[in-house]
Amino acid sequence: MEFLAAGENLPFVVSLTILVIIGVLEGAALIVGLGFSAVLDNLLPEIDVDLDIDGPDVGANNTLGNLFTWLRVGKVPLLVLLILFFLFFGLSGLFFQAVSEEVLGLLLPSWIISIPAFVITLFLVRWFGMWFEELMPNDETSAVSSDSFIGRMATIVLGAAETGKPAQAKVRDEHGLDHYLMIEPDVQGEVFEQGSKVLVVRKSGITFYAITTASEILTS
Question: Which strand (E) or helix (H) includes residue 25?
Fold first, then answer.
């Protein structure tokens, strides 16, 4: 316990603590009928990456996108990659510190250990991400573009949506999987009560806008 409480191990203990928190949130979301992983994928900004990793070099501006591609972002659900990252970073950091204490008789500063731990974590995330991708049928992955939700019907599942006050809604993608979005009415003054079925028509940032099929589709 003294080993874990050491200040030199703080980043690695925090990493594992975040992993536990994610597990708790996912469990709580399942209890209330939501999916924390789907909510996370849709609340984060859209990441536009070139998934053809064997293609030509497209320049330095796409370095971050290439890193995301290499880590299988867009091929594997983001929550899975986050879990892998926090798990391996925490465990590898503690492992290196344990070796340091055994060999040198002391714990090294966390920033020194973080460098090899981070590098190894990236390779482990990629390797396990590729393995997880192989286990997932291509038609069942939840890593779909949020733009594909435009033109689909959604159901308000939590709260009432009105202008400036989005509510949570559920939409089903082309693979039959449910995703959770934050939706506002596209028409000023309109209110979507819980249980309402609406048509998603556009997206701005992390918020989607919808219309009621009865009042808007027929008049468009």
Answer: helix 10-31
Q: Is the domain of 35 the same as that of 61?
A: yes
Interval 126-168: pLDDT, tens: 898 888 877 765 544 445 677 888 999 999 987 889 988 888 8
In Å, how far from its chain's centre is CA 105? Answer: 40
Contacts of 14 (CB under 8 A, 6+ apart): 90
Residue 172 and residue 101 share a domain: no
Q: Which residue is listed with tokens 């468009």?
A: 220
- Phi, psi dihedrals of residue 153, rounded to the nearest 5°: -80, 140
Give me the residue label for tokens 């019907």. 153
Count of domains observed in the chain:
2
129 and 210 in a single domain? The answer is no
Quick one: average pLDDT of 75-101? 88
Q: Which of 110, 135, 160 is the last residue of a domain?
A: 135
Residue 45 φ then ψ, to 5°: -60, 150
Structural domain harbouring 157? 146-217
Sign of torsion over alpha carbons 86, 89, 93, 99: positive
Last residue of a domain, one of 135, 159, 185: 135
Q: Strand 207-212 to strand 197-204: parallel, antiparallel, or no bridges (unpaired)?
A: antiparallel
Does residue 105 sit in helix, strand or coil? coil
